[in-house]
Amino acid sequence: MSTVPWNTKELTIGELSERSGVPASALRFYERQGLIHSRRTTGNQRRYHRTTLRVVAFIRASQNVGIPLSVIGEVLAILPEGAAPTEQFWIRASDCWREELNARIERLERMRDLFTECIGCGCLSFGQCALVNPRDQLAEKGSGPHRLTSEAPAR
Ligand code: FES
């Protein structure tokens, strides 16, 4: 049960953590990534507007379906400063997430089918295994040790 009154306009990081269930360390990380914002008190303590709770809820819901933070950040950047994600905003974003998830599921299904062919093989051949070298990308570069030369550290 939360001990923070609902009419509080600003939240400390501990209160935001308590309300959202998200660890303070994760909240600080979100802030470093520019996903949430705070103001600092004269004592240099973070204060979050209570609308940040909805932003954190949006981040967590998106993360829970596998959306990368970088993509979440791009969508949140559309929100005006200090505005909370509205129901409309969430519906639009979740439509985008659905397309992203469907594409991801299709990729995973293709990988599962390829993996099925690999089970019991163990060759890990750059020339034959589609998981090691999807769509034989190295062959498109012509002959030679492309993987070794392109990944070699600069001297
Ligand atoms: S491990 Fe042999 S084809 Fe993938």
From TrEMBL:
Range of residues in the leader sequence: none
Native organism: Streptosporangium brasiliense
HTH merR-type domain residues: 10-78
PROSITE patterns listed in its UniProt record: HTH_MERR_2 (PS50937)
Protein name (Swiss-Prot/TrEMBL): MerR family redox-sensitive transcriptional activator SoxR
NCBIfam families per the UniProt record, alphabetical: SoxR
Keywords assigned by UniProt, alphabetized: 2Fe-2S, DNA-binding, Iron, Iron-sulfur, Metal-binding
PANTHER family from the UniProt entry: REDOX-CYCLING DRUG-SENSING TRANSCRIPTIONAL ACTIVATOR SOXR, REDOX-SENSITIVE TRANSCRIPTIONAL ACTIVATOR SOXR
Xref: InterPro entries: DNA-bd_dom_put_sf, MerR-type_HTH_dom, MerR_fam, Redox-sen_tscrpt-act_SoxR
Domain of life: Bacteria
Gene3D superfamilies per record: 1.10.1660.10
